[in-house]
Each structure stands twice: as structure tokens, then as C-alpha cells.
Design a protein that fits this description.
The protein is of the alpha/beta class. Helix content is about 40%, strand content about 15%. It contains 12 helices and 11 strands. β4, α5 and β5 form a beta-alpha-beta unit. α8 runs parallel beside α9. About 5% of the residues have low confidence. The structure holds flavin mononucleotide (FMN). The site of flavin mononucleotide has 20 residues, from β3, β4 and α10.
Length: about 325
Amino acid sequence: MELNTSWLGLDLKNPIVPSASPLSRSLDSARQLEDAGAAAIIMYSLFEEAVRAEEEGMVRFLHHQDHGHAEADDFLPDFQDFSGELDRYLEQVADLKAALGIPVIASLNGVSASGWLEHAKEVREAGADALELNTYYVAGDIWEEGSLVEKRYVSVLKALQNQIDIPINMKLSPWFSSVGHVVKTLEKTGTAGVSLFNRFYQPDINVEQLRLQHTLHPSRSSDSLLAMHWTALLHGRVECSLGATGGIHSAEDVLKLLLAGTDVIHLCTALLQRGAGLITQILDDIAAWMEEHGFETIDDFRGRLSQINVQDPSEFERLNYIRVLDTYSFKPGVWV
Ligand SMILES: Cc1cc2nc3c(=O)[nH]c(=O)nc-3n(C[C@H](O)[C@H](O)[C@H](O)COP(=O)(O)O)c2cc1C
């Protein structure tokens, strides 16, 4: 079976690409992912807040030195020894590149098209094959128009493009009034691909202690239907690469996404919960399924159940809603 695929202009041996997670913080776990069959790896994110905090700290430190506190200076670290989040990130890009044979995609996470993006150049120089931009933006200002939220994505992409010449992948929110139009706009601006979708975490409330709490609820397979739906709507209508993230836990989930038309599948929670061996198992299961259904390559079936290829395209729109509601039956013993 030929499982190879193309994504962001990169030729990959298969469509399984672990998404940004703590697994790329250690060379050992990254090697395990590669050995299990991962075709590329997306690194954990470098956050805008971390870069800014570091720059502000550096400015204060240099200012302090300029004003000559001779005795105190003896106790301060030498400027060259200052190794913050950015330096650690750049080192990790270089170390992963040296340790792995698969493409390494760096990840930047931020919302403003400002100075912090200049560091993308250093990420590229450290060896990243491509860069993912996670614009995790919560549009909490009720006076900010939707079009301005969309423009934010475009301007961050443009600012990044001014810095680097490697492919850029935009990890998107599902909360746009027209997801397809946003993807088309980003494609025109020059994104090489989009990832559908960033998982937004809602703050929780602790009713006993009357305070907010921050809980990481793991994703489930049914969550992947969101990416599946939008992949199916976009397949064949956009030129840029499509990646799916969120709730993909099994070979069946992966196959659904491929049938909907994605180019790559990103796993995160499933790998954190079950280990790297899951990739090998999923690849084996996909190959077995392909053999059973008479497919030799991924392209033989990719997008076969996308909206442009199904008999009744309205099944991806209101008709699905109506049919789903029709399937409901009352629970025996509760209402009847
Ligand atoms: C512990 C943890 C850390 C994550 N770190 C990042 C990150 O640094 N950058 C990012 O873009 N996404 C990050 N994500 C999001 C994942 O890459 C992924 O898009 C999301 O969890 C949905 O996929 P899943 O259902 O397979 O977990 C993280 C997720 C988890 C659970």
C-alpha cells in the first residue's frame, strides 16, 4: 500500500503528523514518534507572551547595566549567558532537526502582527522545515466586528511572510461566521495550508469554591466530526493543504478524515493517552482497510465523501440537521 501524501509542499511517507504537544519537548519522545511511523512532527508552541516578557526583561536588564550599578552587576548573569524561552526554543528546533529524519514544523502562538514575529527568522535559521501559526484569539470584545477578527489573522500571516520563506500553516478557530471564506482569504494571502481546528478551552467554574478553574478535558472521537465536516466542505474548493486536528483517536477517525478530503491528520490527546505505538497500529489498520477495499494509494479514496463528490451535497448542510433530529427516539422507561 502507498500511504504517501503531500502537505505544505512537503512529501510525506504517510498522513500521520503529531500536532503541537509536550511530546516535542523531549528528543526521546520525538524519536519514539518517528520510530512508530510519524511522517513529520509539529513542535510545541513558542508563545508571543513569552517572547514579549523576555524582551521586556532584557530591556530592563540592559537599562540597569547602562546606569552602572557596579557592585550589583557582579551578581547579575552575563548578557551572553541569558538563556530564555526563545533561546531554548531555537535550541530545541536545531536539536530535533539533528535527531530526526522527518520534517520538523515549528509553531508560533500569538495574536498580534508585531515585533515578536521577527524572531520567526531565527526559527527558520535553526532549521524548521515549515512554520505553524496558532492564532488563538478569543474575540471577547463585543465592539470588535467579525471582519476585524478575520483581518487579524490575515495581518499576522502577512507579517510572518515578510520574515520567512518556508511554508506557513495556519491553525484556525472554528468560530468564524464563514470558515470557508476565511480559508479562501488566507489562501489568497499565501498560506500553504490550514489546520482545522484549534481546540478552544473554556474556563470552568468551581461551584463550591466560587472561583474559576482551568481544567483540561481530553478530546473524544466524536469531536473529530467538526474537522471532518469542514474538511468535506472545503475539499476540492481550495488549493492549500488541509490538516485535521481535534478528537482523532483511531484508524476509523483517520479514515473518515481522509474520505472527507484531508491531506494530513494530527494526533495529540490520543498519543498522550496511549503512547507512540498508536501510530504504528493506525498505519497498519489503514493499510488493512485499503487492501480490503481495493485501494492502492491514499489518493484513490481521498475526498471520496467530500461535499463535491457525494450524491446529495445538502447532506453536509441543513438536510443533515433535519435527518439527525429525525433519528431521535425516546428512551424506553423514561418517557414511555
Ligand atoms: C497538553 C497539550 C498541549 C498542547 N500544546 C499546544 C501547543 O503548544 N501549541 C498548539 O498549537 N497546540 C497545542 N495543543 C493542541 C493540540 O495540538 C491539538 O490541536 C488539540 O489538542 C486537539 O487535538 P487532540 O484532540 O488530538 O488533542 C496542545 C494540546 C494538549 C492536550
